[in-house]
């Protein structure tokens, strides 16, 4: 108890040092990361547990809460957690990726401290090191609106988090060995919902319960490694209300395609006969469809679920057309009192266009992925630390790729870092020339996904951008032989990761970093390095540079 009190006092002191809002509540967590035996597909395997749980504990927060998570690494490998979709305003020190943080060494701990500043929505956290994500260590993160901010729907009777995703029966070390030896992961062995795989007709305990006549909120996230999933609930409509931190126009759907790294919030009315119903998740765009189920039970139910599952859609054109129906709710307030639509992104002049083309190489029997001819590799010194200590030139080069991709069939393996002018409004085009779907994510930001279209991008395509009510989000899918256009202002100082959410591609180089530095070097734009930050690589043992001031 005394140690916990000391930790809280220390954190509050550090909060004052870095400018975190002292008046906003703090949530404290202590997480022990360990190995443990799990059997999600019926076969015992080594999993990664947090406080003995698989999936890990859920964080239940409110806008502007300060979250403090003391992570003890009891694994035999270095470990990090990243908080996907949390923007860490001015604070990339807490992002939990190898470009910003030294990994937590075995037998040691690190305390993350971040604020969910001006955010609401459904998010996930997961390991960013090696293939740890394939063994567990992931969980949900809810951020509720403050009471004074109206939500554009009545309070649900209850809220449920659904973490679904593909799963491999082999250990994360074996899977990593596949990738290191030049082999792809191959197709997954199954699909999970909240750590379990259910089969039709086989008795299952209910995962969730609903009371007739009431409405429930489901936060559905794809926490898998590779496969897009279609989510549906037998006999029920899905009303989409929020997507990756934005309130949406409230359309009804029979099912929703949820791509890797994406989270949706839906309302489900308990308006059917009181019995059991199957919740269904099945793979999309794989040769062999894999399906899992979970039971939703009505209170005082009178029957078993029908063994006839609702059909899944076929083909990616259906998914593209569904994307086109997603719209930002312009009149709803998000984390702040002003309506979302008061930010007119379509009226801002684009100052820079960056085209990122994903590619694959199998040269010399080694599988690698990358952007614009460069396959990223993480140096021993995190990029942000090298930059902060003014040693960037000894660790990496800026701008090794051009804004316009060059024609090449090879991939150069080196750190991939782009300089970004502070507060510039930038257009990024993700171009996918491959035959498989891609899912891309940007840390530290949300962006406007203004277009996803088949074919090849050209400047004339801007005429068809949605410049009014594209959803502000942090992940976007790009279909085979297609492209996606996003718009955002790079106003969050720090070093931020742009990556594929398909983890074998990320691990093998399909990622890069953007360095966003304010010329003022002021605490108004970026926080100083926290006192508890471990130092590694060439900055190990060095005195910290002079701190930023206001």
From TrEMBL:
Coiled coil: none annotated. Pfam families: Cu-oxidase, Cu-oxidase_2, Cu-oxidase_3. Keywords: Glycoprotein, Signal. It comes from the Eukaryota. Residues 32-146, 159-300, 381-520 form the Plastocyanin-like domain. InterPro entries: Cu-oxidase-like_N (IPR011707), Cu-oxidase_2nd (IPR001117), Cu-oxidase_C (IPR011706), Cu-oxidase_fam (IPR045087), Cupredoxin (IPR008972), CuRO_1_AAO-like (IPR034273), CuRO_2_AO-like (IPR034271). Residues 1-22 form the signal peptide. Belongs to the multicopper oxidase family. PANTHER family: MULTI-COPPER OXIDASE, OS01G0816700 PROTEIN. This is L-ascorbate oxidase homolog.
């Amino acid at each position: 108890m005394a140690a916990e009190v000391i930790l809280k006092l220390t954190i509050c002191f550090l909060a004052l040092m870095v400018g975190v809002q002292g008046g906003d509540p703090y949530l404290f967590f202590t997480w022990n990361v360990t190995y443990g035996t799990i059997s999600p597909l019926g076969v015992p395997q080594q999993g990664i547990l947090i406080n003995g749980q698989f999936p890990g504990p859920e964080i239940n927060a409110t806008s502007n809460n300060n979250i403090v998570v003391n992570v003890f690494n009891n694994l035999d490998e270095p470990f990090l957690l990243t908080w996907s979709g949390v923007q860490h305003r001015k604070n990339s020190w807490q992002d939990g990726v190898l470009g910003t943080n030294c990994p937590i060494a075995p037998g040691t701990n690190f305390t993350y401290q971040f604020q969910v500043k001006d955010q609401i929505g459904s998010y996930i956290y997961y390991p960013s090191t090696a293939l740890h994500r394939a063994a567990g260590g992931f969980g949900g993160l809810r951020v509720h609106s403050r009471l004074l901010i109206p939500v554009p729907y009545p309070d649900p009777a209850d809220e449920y988090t659904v973490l679904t995703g593909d799963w491999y029966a082999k250990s994360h070390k074996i899977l990593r060995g596949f990738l290191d030896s030049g082999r792809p992961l191959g197709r997954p062995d199954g699909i999970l919902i909240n750590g379990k795989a259910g089969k039709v007709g086989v008795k299952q305990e209910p995962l969730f319960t609903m009371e007739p006549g009431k409405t429930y909120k489901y936060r559905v996230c794809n926490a898998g490694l590779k496969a897009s999933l279609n989510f549906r609930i037998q006999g029920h409509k899905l009303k989409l209300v929020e997507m990756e931190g934005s309130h949406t126009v409230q359309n009804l759907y029979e099912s929703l395609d949820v791509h890797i790294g994406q989270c949706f919030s839906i309302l489900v009315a308990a308006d059917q006969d009181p019995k059991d119903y199957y919740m269904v998740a099945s793979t999309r765009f794989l040769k062999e469809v894999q399906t899992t189920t979970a039971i939703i039970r009505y209170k005082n139910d009178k029957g078993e679920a029908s063994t006839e599952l609702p059909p899944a859609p076929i083909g990616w054109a259906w998914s593209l057309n569904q994307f086109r129906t997603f719209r930002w709710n312009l009149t709803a307030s998000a984390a702040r009192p002003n309506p979302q639509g008061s930010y007119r992104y379509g009226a801002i002049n684009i100052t820079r266009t960056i085209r990122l083309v994903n590619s694959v190489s199998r040269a010399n029997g080694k599988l690698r992925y990358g952007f614009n001819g460069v396959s990223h590799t993480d140096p021993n010194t995190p990029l942000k630390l090298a930059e902060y200590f003014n040693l960037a030139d000894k660790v990496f080069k800026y701008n090794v790729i051009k804004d316009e991709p060059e024609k090449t069939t090879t991939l150069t393996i080196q750190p991939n870092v782009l300089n970004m002018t502070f507060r510039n409004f930038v257009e990024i085009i993700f171009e996918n020339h491959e035959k498989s779907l891609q899912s891309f994510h940007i840390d530290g930001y949300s962006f406007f996904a203004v277009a996803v279209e088949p074919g090849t991008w050209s400047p004339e395509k801007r005429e068809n951008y949605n410049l009014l009510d594209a959803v502000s989000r942090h992940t976007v899918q790009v279909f085979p032989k297609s492209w996606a256009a996003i718009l955002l202002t790079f106003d969050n100082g720090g070093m931020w990761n742009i990556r594929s959410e398909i983890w074998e591609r990320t691990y093998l180089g399909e990622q890069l970093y953007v360095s966003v530095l304010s010329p003022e070097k002021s605490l108004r734009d970026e926080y100083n390095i926290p006192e508890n930050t471990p130092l590694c690589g060439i900055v190990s043992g060095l005195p910290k540079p002079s701190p930023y001031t206001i």
